């Protein structure tokens, strides 16, 4: 765990974000939990804000109704005291006003009182002095509130304010109304009420709400995790099982538990896997039987073929002693026996590839020299078919580990096909290399092929034009075996062709079997129109 945290702390923000994004894409469980927690957080925030605002409004409304009622009672009590006044001088009037303030304090819970004579009245010797508690001095009582109170002698007005206190400004409400002193005129009465307790109550309620929301968020995250694990784990098991099945482990199965939809999926998957295993086993057995049949038939035909070969060789050596028709028959027999032996050899070779029993006999080989040797070997056939073969080798003059017998066979097949289908056109053989590979291309300018023929050119026993006369007499397996020869070396054969423009076959071999070929040394499409 410490190593994990050390690794996380050592990451840059960009690396950490990249890891999170990668984990988000790969983990269904992580996405499920994160989305659940995110939506729960959004819901908690919305509900929390709504409840906080509602409680705040309710607390304020309740407290405001209370202070308005208190203020109204205090104003009524003070007015009753003032109505009994019989003062004939300022001192008496001041005593009556003090008694009224005492009545106000007795009728309300607030000690914050201010009394101001309404401006604009006639001067009176009975008018007592203005009075204001320290908490209501300064700009606490606004001109707007005073204007409302001065304009309506019977109304009651209030305003949210910040009251002065020893600890600073505190939230509150000032309620204003008018009093009437007989002989002294009208007075503005302001009573301030401290709302700090209501604010403390609201803060406590809000903290409880957010703490409860946080606890709920953690609990919802845990629930989402366990639910996601409960749902995602069977899917992970199915994915892991599918991957093992795709890698060839046909015996792997998904555990079946319960009777829910995941159990139904498990049973269906296991049934599919069992059916696939049976079919693949049957196909493997059929393939094995087919391979064994081809190998056995090819081997068994060797004995009678040897006898026929002895008789054919005897007739062929003494063909000059035969009649003309018999001499032609002996020559045809000899040619077809050669083709039959080649076909048997190719069948045995392809069956070895199918059975995956091929073993390479590699040795350091110069591919450029090998290609030149093959061209020299095929030159007489090229002259016979009026083909001119040109060899260029800008690269590839070094040794690589290959099985020279198989690579020679590939080149013979490619050059032989070029002679066969080149229609007497020139044939270009080119050898080149790259840092990772060596390539040999064989380009003819003959009949060419269409895209459908190119896609089938490596098929077994497939011919580009079955109606065209074959001058060389191949078995139809040459290119299929050549492709397998290239693949067993870790190489490839690419072909590019166009109708009536010829074809280009490119054999590419890796310089090191453990290193990818990468960029091709020779582009198969080079020299063809787009």
**Structural class per helix/strand content?**
alpha+beta
Please tell me the total number of domains. Answer: 3
Q: CA-to-CA gap between the ends? A: 60 Å
Give the count of helical stretches.
12
3D architecture notes:
The protein is α+β, with helices and mostly antiparallel strands and 530 residues long. It folds into 3 domains: 25-247, PAS domain (Beta-Lactamase), CATH 3.30.450; 262-354, Helix Hairpins, CATH 1.10.287.130; 361-510, Histidine kinase-like ATPase, C-terminal domain (Heat Shock Protein 90), CATH 3.30.565. The chain has 12 helices and 12 strands. It has helices spanning 2-10, 13-26, 28-83, 90-107, 143-151, 196-246, 261-317, 324-355, 367-384, 404-421, 451-456, 478-488, and strands at residues 112-117, 131-132, 157-165, 168-181, 185-194, 363-366, 389-392, 399-402, 427-433, 437-444, 492-498, 502-510. The strands form 3 sheets. A 5-stranded antiparallel beta sheet has the order 2-1-5-4-3, sandwiched between helices. The protein has a 5-stranded mixed beta sheet with strand order 7-9-10-12-11, covered by helices on one side. A hairpin with a 3-residue loop joins strand 11 (492-498) and strand 12. Helix 6 runs parallel beside helix 7 (261-317) and helix 7 runs antiparallel to helix 8 (324-355). The radius of gyration is 52 Å and the shape is rod-shaped. The chain starts with a helix and ends in a 20-residue tail after the last strand. The relative contact order is 0.06. Residues 466-471 have low confidence and may be disordered.
């Amino acid at each position: 765990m410490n190593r994990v945290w050390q690794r996380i702390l050592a990451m840059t923000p960009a690396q950490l974000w990249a890891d999170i994004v990668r984990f988000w894409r790969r983990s269904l469980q992580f996405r499920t939990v994160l989305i659940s927690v995110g939506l729960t957080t959004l819901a908690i925030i919305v509900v929390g804000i709504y409840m906080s605002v509602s409680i705040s409004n309710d607390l304020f409304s309740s407290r405001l109704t209370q202070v308005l009622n208190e203020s109204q009672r205090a104003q009524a009590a003070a007015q009753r005291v003032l109505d009994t006044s019989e003062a004939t001088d300022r001192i008496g009037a001041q005593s009556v006003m003090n008694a009224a303030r005492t009545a106000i304090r007795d009728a309300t819970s607030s000690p914050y009182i201010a009394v101001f004579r309404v401006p604009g009245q006639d001067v009176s010797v009975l008018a007592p002095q203005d009075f204001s508690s320290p908490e209501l001095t300064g700009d606490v009582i606004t001109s707007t509130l005073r204007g409302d109170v001065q304009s309506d002698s019977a109304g009651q007005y209030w305003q949210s304010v910040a009251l002065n206190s020893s600890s600073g400004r505190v939230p509150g409400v000032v309620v204003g109304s008018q009093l009437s002193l007989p002989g002294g005129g009208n007075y503005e009465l302001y009573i301030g009420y401290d709302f700090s307790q209501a604010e403390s109550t609201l803060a406590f309620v809000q903290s409880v709400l957010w703490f409860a929301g946080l606890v709920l968020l953690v609990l919802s995250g845990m629930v989402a995790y366990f639910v996601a694990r409960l749902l995602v784990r069977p899917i992970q098991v199915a994915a892991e099982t599918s991957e093992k099945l795709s890698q060839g482990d046909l015996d792997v199965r998904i555990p079946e538990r319960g009777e829910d939809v995941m159990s139904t999926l498990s049973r269906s998957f296991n049934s599919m896997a069992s059916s696939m295993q049976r079919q693949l086993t049957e196909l493997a057995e059929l393939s094995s039987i087919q391979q064994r049949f081809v190998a056995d038939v090819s081997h068994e035909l060797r004995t009678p073929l040897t006898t026929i070969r002895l008789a054919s060789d005897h007739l062929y050596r003494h063909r000059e002693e035969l009649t003309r028709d018999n001499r032609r028959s002996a020559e045809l027999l000899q040619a077809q026996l050669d083709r039959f032996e080649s076909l048997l050899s190719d069948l045995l070779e392809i069956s070895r590839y199918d059975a995956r029993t091929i073993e390479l006999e590699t040795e350091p080989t110069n591919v450029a020299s090998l290609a030149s040797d093959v061209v020299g070997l095929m030159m007489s056939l090229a002259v016979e078919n009026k083909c001119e073969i040109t060899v260029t080798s800008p690269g590839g003059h070094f040794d690589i580990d290959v099985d020279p017998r198989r690579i020679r066979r590939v080149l013979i097949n490619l050059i032989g096909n070029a002679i066969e289908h080149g229609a007497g056109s020139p044939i270009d053989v080119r050898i080149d290399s790259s840092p990772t590979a060596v390539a040999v291309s064989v380009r003819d300018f003959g009949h060419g092929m269409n895209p459908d023929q190119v896609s089938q050119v490596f098929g077994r026993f497939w011919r580009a034009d079955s109606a065209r006369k074959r001058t060389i007499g191949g078995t139809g397996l040459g290119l299929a075996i050549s492709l397998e020869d290239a693949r067993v070396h870790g190489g490839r054969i690419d072909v590019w062709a166009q109708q009536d423009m010829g074809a280009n076959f490119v054999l590419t071999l890796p310089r090191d079997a453990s290193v990818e070929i990468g960029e091709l040394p020779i582009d198969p499409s080079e020299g063809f129109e787009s």
